[in-house]
Amino acid sequence: MLIGLVGKPSVGKSTFFKAATLAEVEIASYPFTTIKPNHGVGYVKVDCIDKEFNTQCMPNHGFCLNHKRFVPIDLMDVAGLVPGASEGKGLGNQFLDDLRQADVFIHIVDVSGMIDEVGKPTENYDVSKDIVFLDDELNKWFLGILVKVWKSFARKAELEEDNFASAVATQFSGLKVKEEHVKSALAKLNFTSKPSRWDEEQLLRFAAELRKQSKPMIIAANKIDTSQGKSNYEKLKNKFPDLIIIPCSADLELALREAAKFNLINYIPGERNFEIKGNLTEKQKQALEKIKKDVLDEYEDGTGVQEILNYAVFKLLKYIAIFPAGAHKLGDSKGRILPDCFLLPPNSTALDFAFFLHTDFGKNFIRAIDARTKKILGRDYKLKHRDALEIVTGR
Ligand SMILES: Nc1nc2c(ncn2[C@@H]2O[C@H](COP(=O)(O)OP(=O)(O)O)[C@@H](O)[C@H]2O)c(=O)[nH]1
Ligand SMILES: [Mg+2]
What is the percentage of the chain residues whose pLDDT exceeds 70? Predict the structure, then answer.
């Protein structure tokens, strides 16, 4: 699963990426600082089950702070997109291509109103324009890919009486389009004519719907800490009541995570508080107090960065976190307690989980055991978020 950060230049994509991954990336206030996509590991936050078992986990991957488990996820920061990107403006085509592999997008919007549509400094910019143009470019990008092969592809699929949704999914698997995405798109549009007869307008609507289904999007209203930030965020919420928009300050999250990294504070990403522990200069203290007052006290999700990642993974993609756990023993052979926590796609079953762990576990699956209740679960048991399971195999 891959999360793609998108948006016009200079909105804070690389800052968000750095805050989430603490990777060294270039951050600058001029457009196209980022050219090659940055790949890195960020984390989603899950209530760890170790607390229920009165123990402390020892993660193999990620980390656990005060029983909040941080599970690794892949993040990609791409170059900024400008209006006309789908026609090649601002190196658009090349950058759009980087987005094919993403399963979900975080659209970073700059709510300061101080950056124009191509990433240059301005004043009182209408930030709602960014939501409209980015959507438009992504849809046209999908359309461009579809249009190239559509007529011949659709005719062939109709002639051979293929399962149309599955044929589309195979044809566009490079865009990570799945059969269920196509089905939902078709159901929404409810066109009466055959796909090979769709006109340009219908194809664009299909491209747009397919894009929405296969790459759902959440909006980060970034730079909420700036003077116009809050009012522009409110404007966006009023103008686009159906979109998911979360206030965000990537820059302040980065400051908090770096202060934590240098042992100046204890900070659990996503919380609205931190604890000073190092020797701070007066200036550092004031800066931290300002973060607390301006953002943490003000917004329900703190700086927003953690909530945005969690929302993308658990609400948009509907992934679930599963802990492998022995029914009678929580440690692995090296004595590490609950070393793993895996993210699985929605509707995964106990058998899917066994195959996920190892092909042999899947092949030799006998039953699963719920580590909490010790109840026996069959292969078709549908996994729930934060389940703890043992897989019992025949060998
Ligand atoms: N005030 C404020 N500035 C930010 C925030 N996030 C990023 N910036 C600044 O915006 C500029 C562009 O950031 P960058 O991450 O390089 O943007 P990108 O082009 O979208 O990758 C830099 O000067 C950042 O320090 C934020 O949350 N608040
Ligand atoms: Mg950048």
Answer: 96
Q: Please give the distance, rounded to the nearest whole angstrom, from the Cα atom of residue 209 to the centre of ligand 2.
A: 28
The residue whose CA has the least distance to atom 1 of ligand 1 is 223
What residues form DSSP beta bridges with 248? 222
Structure tokens at 93: 């085509």
Helices (H), strands (E): how many in the chain?
Answer: 12, 14
Give how far Cα 119 sits from Cα of 81, 98, 249, Å: 9, 20, 18
Report how far ligand 2's centroid is from the alpha carbon of 201 (Å).
34
Q: What does pLDDT average to over the chain?
A: 93
Residue nearest to atom 12 of ligand 1 (CA): 10
The rounded Cα 344 to chain-centroid distance in angstroms is: 14
Q: pTM for the complete prediction?
A: 0.95
Q: 28 in ligand 1 pocket by Cβ < 6 Å?
A: yes
pLDDT tens, position by position, 365-389: 999 999 999 999 999 999 999 999 9
* Mean local confidence (pLDDT), 136-158: 92
CA distances from 11 to 30, 32, 112, 127, 244 (A): 10, 11, 9, 11, 18
Pocket flag, ligand 1, residue 364 (CB < 6 Å): no
- CA-based nearest residue to 72, from 43, 35, 31: 43
Question: Whats the size of the chain, residue-wise?
Answer: 395
Counting ligands in written order, which one lies closest to the CA of residue 6? 1
Ordered DSSP codes for 6-21: E-STTSSHHHHHHHHH
